[in-house]
Amino acid sequence: MTNMNPYRIQFINGYIEVEERKSPNGTQEAKCTLHPMEQSAMLFREVAEWANENNYTHTKMLMRNGVPYFIAWLSQTQEEQQ
Prior knowledge:
Blueprint: E1 7-11, E2 14-22, E3 28-35, H1 40-53, E4 56-58, E5 62-64, E6 67-74, H2 78-81
Antiparallel strand pairs: 1-2, 2-3, 3-6, 4-6, 5-6
């Protein structure tokens, strides 16, 4: 994750708008806003499966001001943890 400009990733049930940033502890993370809101549950399941397959960890689906989103970050491999 190195892009600081928001961008979209298209999925079958909609798309996510990705905003890369640093967490308070300095970890690279991405705020991923789900669109369209009407399909957010199905889209979240689809994105969560994709994230797990691509070595990302993510929060549960969150909501702020009626807008669904989640936070994702690259999982550490066992070699990186040692």
